[in-house]
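Deliverable D5.2: sample structural annotation.
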Amino acid sequence: MFSLELGKEISNKACSCRGKQYKSIVGFIKRDKDADAVYFASLQTGHKDIAVGLTVSIGKWWDDSALNERHWIYLTVIPSPTNFNMKIEEPNSSPHVNFKPLGIALSRSEALSSDLKGDFFDVADYIVLEDPAVNSYLMGQEVAITFHNRYS
């Protein structure tokens, strides 16, 4: 159902919270061969605790003019002994809050009541499992740097 196309690089950046380092990743998700989602993952590598910030936009990514048909959320992902815990946050927490191509930002309450909530979590689950950099970081391993496209 989904396939993953990884961005060409992993960027090292400094966050606004005391300049701590993080790694930034971009990826693209296809659903049934159509461009369905874009995501940005922030791996908080400079922080003590393992956490990933995911900005996920779902909608008509195959149509450049369809900004009003894309919606996005920001969520945090933290590992636990048995799974990955995800929490939808307010969009202004995302480092990509001003990136207009993401479409319409959903607040936490809007996202939780949205018909897209299940889709957002399905895409986020897929990213956490299939993006090698995100998965390796959440598993407490060295961040896997992979530049080739990976399809499942």
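Annotation notes: The helical segments are 108-113, 117-130, 132-138. Residues 147-152 have pLDDT under 50 and may be disordered.
The annotation will be released with the project's public dataset once the embargo ends.
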